[in-house]
Amino acid sequence: MRVLAICNPVCGDASAVQFYETHVAPLLKEATVELDAPVLTTTHDGHAGQFVTQYTESVEGPFTVILASGDGTLHEIVQTLTNTPPKGVRASAPPARLSFVLLPCGTANALYSSLFPPQSEEDATSTDYKLSSLRAFLASGTTVPLTLALTTLSPPPRSHNPPRTAVSAVVASTSLHASILHDAEALRASVPGLERFKRAAAQNLARWYSASVTLFPAQATGRVELWDPAARRFAPHPQSTESDPLVDLSGPFAYFLSTANVDRLEPAFRITPHARDVPPKGPALDVVVLRPERDPSVEMDSREVREAFAEKAKAVLGGAYEDGAHTVLRYAEDGCVLTEGDGPLVVEYFRCGGWEWEPDDIDDRAHLVCADGEVFTIDKGGRATCAAVIPVDDKSGFAVFV
Ligand SMILES: Nc1ncnc2c1ncn2[C@@H]1O[C@H](COP(=O)(O)OP(=O)(O)OP(=O)(O)O)[C@@H](O)[C@H]1O
C-alpha cells in the first residue's frame, strides 16, 4: 500500500507538525512504513488538494493519506480530487480508493470525534486517543467508507455560468450554520479556537432565511423519514408516500443542516445524534431543521419576534451539547419549549437521500451554502441540490481507518 503524509501547520492550535514528528513518525518507523514522498507540510490553502491530485496523476492504484489536520483539509482533498478533470495516469487508470489515517489536529475534528467518540474532555486531548486511527492502520487495517454529500450549485436557467459541485464528508448546510462559518472565517486570525464560532453565532442568531426546500427519499427506504422521539426511531414522514415520496418545506428557516458520516460537529455537540445510534442503511443524510413559524407564539415577523425566537433557538440548539437533547423538544400551546407532551416538535429531524434549497432572490444570506466549513454562494435565481452517495465498491471512493 502506498502512503503519503500531510500536516496542516496552521489548523487548530498549530501543533500538527510537532504532533506528527513526536508521536507519528516514530510509530511509522517502528512499523517500517515507508512514505511514497516526503511528508508535506502545507504552505497555503489548496496545497494539500494539489499535492494529492498531482500524486494520482503520476501513480496508479489505492493509497493512504496520513492527515494531521482538521475537517477542512480533508474536505479540500476530496473537493479537489472530485472537481479536477483527470489527466496523466489518472485519466486512463481505473478508480482507486483513497483511505485516510486521521490525526485530529484541527479545531473541531467532527469526523474524527464521530468515528472515535471520546469518553471525556480529557480523553479527547490525550495522545493515545489521537492515535486511534493510526493504530487501526498499523494493526487491523479496518476502514469505513465515507458517504459524500454532493451539492450542485446550479445557476439560473439562462445563465452562462456552469454548475459547481461542493463535496462534503461531514456537513452541508445553509442558514445559521452557513452564516456562522462565513463570519467565523473572518475572525480566524483574531479569535482563537472554538470561540470564533461562538462569536459568529451571536452575530447571526436572529436571522431568518427565505427559501423553499424539497427533501428526496433515501435509497434504502424509498421515503423521507422523520425522527419520532417517543418511539425512538425514524418513521416515514406523513407527506412521503410510496407514489410521491418527496417532502416540501416552506420557509422561513432559522437552521438547516445536513450531515454525512458524523453525529457531531465538535466532540460534545451532537447535532444529528441518531446518525450513530441508528445508523442509516445505504447513502443517506440526517437533516436538522428549525422553522420559526412552527412556534405557536410566532404570529408575525418583526425584529422583536426574531430576537425572542433567537433566544429560544440558542437554548434549543444548545441541547446538542446535552447528548442530542434537542431532538425531543416540543412546543406548548403558548410557544414554551417542553421536554415532553404531544405538541409540535421544535426541531424537525429528517433522514433522507438529499435535498434541494431554492433561496428567495432578495435574501442574500439565504444564498450561502457551507460544505465542511467552505462557504459557497448560490447565484441569484439559482438553487443548491444535495445528494448522498457512497462508493460502489471497496476499490473506489474514500474511506477512513477505524
Ligand atoms: N499552510 C496553510 N496556510 C493557510 N491555510 C492552510 C494551510 N494549509 C491548509 N490550509 C487551510 O486551512 C483550513 C483549515 O484547516 P482545517 O479545517 O484542517 O483546520 P481547522 O479549521 O482548525 O479544523 P476543523 O475543520 O476541524 O475545525 C483549510 O481550509 C485548509 O485549506
Automatic annotation (TrEMBL):
PROSITE patterns: DAGK (PS50146). Residues 1-156 form the DAGKc domain. GO terms for biological process: sphingosine biosynthetic process. GO terms for cellular component: cytoplasm; membrane. GO terms for molecular function: lipid kinase activity. SUPFAM superfamilies: NAD kinase/diacylglycerol kinase-like (SSF111331). This is DAGKc domain-containing protein. It comes from Laetiporus sulphureus 93-53.
